[in-house]
Each structure stands twice: as structure tokens, then as C-alpha cells.
Amino acid sequence: MRTTPGCRRSAQRGSSLLEVTLAMAMAAILLAVGTALWDTGPVDLLAAQAEIRSSVEEAFILARARGTDVKVALGAASGIGEHLPVQLSRRVKWGKPAHIPLPPGMDAPVVASRTGEAHPVITVTPRHTTLASAWFLNNGKEALCMRLSGNGHLQVLRWRQDRLKWTRV
Questions:
Q1: Are 139 and 45 in contact (CB under 8 A)?
Q2: pLDDT tens digits, residue range 91-139?
Q3: Which DSSP symbol is given to 82?
Q4: Number of domains, the chain
Q5: CB-based contact 45:53 (threshold 8 Å)
Q6: Is residue 102 part of a domain?
Q7: Reduced to 3 states, what is the DSSP secondary structure of residue 4?
Q8: CATH of the domain at 79
Q9: What confidence tens digit (pLDDT) does each residue in 48-81 have?
Q10: What span, in angstroms and rounded, lies between the C-alpha atoms of 126 and 63?
Q11: Rounded (10°) CA dihedral 76, 78, 80, 81
């Protein structure tokens, strides 16, 4: 076969099976280390916040539609009776760790500080009222404080470890 001056054949060197295997093994090790170092705690707290918020909102909608009270069960109470259960990640724990202070202006709730929940079952009425309550959730480093007023307003505060203060969510 004749080659023209502009078109030269070059010898291409392929990769051996050993080189490909070593490259894949190194990529797998880097992926495993990166996954182990990735902190999903903040994501778990955001998911817990969304779960509680949506469960409370759903309860208000159902209570209004049915014309009767609806209950939302949190934590250990989620196995009690007919209610809307709140499902949380296993990495999210009830309660406020001792190293995290209470939000500004909040009196120390005896039960909520210890177990995380002042009232494990929230009852909402068709008139959009509730029994006022507070809950703490944490991932060991950061925490959420969720306060539900008697008129059904849910306030969420988050303890930010990097800022060492509570912020509104």
C-alpha cells in the first residue's frame, strides 16, 4: 500500500488488561475514600425537616377536608394508633446534644431537651389549631429546633456548627 506524504501511518500503542485493571482499582479506591469522607448529616437533617413540615401540612389539609382532628406521630409514638407517621433517617436522632445551646429566648423544655419531643403526637384541628410544641433533632454536630405554635405556624431553627449559632430555616 502506498502512502501519500500527508497521510502517514503511526503505530498506536494499546492499553494492556493489567493497566486497565490498575486504573479501575485506583478509581474504586478514590471513590470509596471520597464516599467515606462525605458528610451527609446536613442532608439528613434537611430531609427530616421536610418530612415533618409536609406531614404537619398534610394533617391540616386532611383535618379540614374530614372535619375531624388528625394526628401526626413523631419518634417512638409512630407505632401508636391511627395517624400520619413521620419517617426519619437512622442517622437523625431525637433530642438536643448537651454541647448545643437552646435557641435564643427559649426556656428549657424539660421533656424536649431530653428526648427531643415535647409531645410525640401532634393533634391538628379542622380550624387550623394545634397544641403548641417543640422538637429537637440532631446528627451529632448540627441540630434542628422545630416549634409549632397554637395557630399551626411551624418555625424551624437550625444550629450551625460552623457559625456556632441558631439560624432560621
A1: yes
A2: 888 888 888 999 988 877 665 545 554 556 778 889 888 876 788 888 8
A3: S
A4: 1
A5: no
A6: yes
A7: coil
A8: 3.55.40
A9: 888 888 888 888 899 899 998 888 876 655 555 5
A10: 5
A11: 170
Beta strands in the chain (DSSP E): 70-73, 84-85, 93-94, 121-124, 133-138, 143-148, 154-160, 165-168
Q: Cell triple for residue 72?
A: 401526626
- Residue 87: inside a domain: yes
Please return the burial class of 134, using the count of CB atoms within 10 Å of its CB with bins 0-12, 13-18 and 19+. Answer: buried
The answer to whether the predicted template modeling score (pTM) of the entire model surpasses 0.70 is no
CA distance 159 to 144: 6
Q: Would 30 be classed as within a structural domain? A: no
- Do residues 59 and 122 touch, judged by C-beta distance below 8 A? yes
| CA–CA gap between residue 116 and residue 136 (Å, rounded) | 5
| Residues spanned by the domain of 132 | 41-168
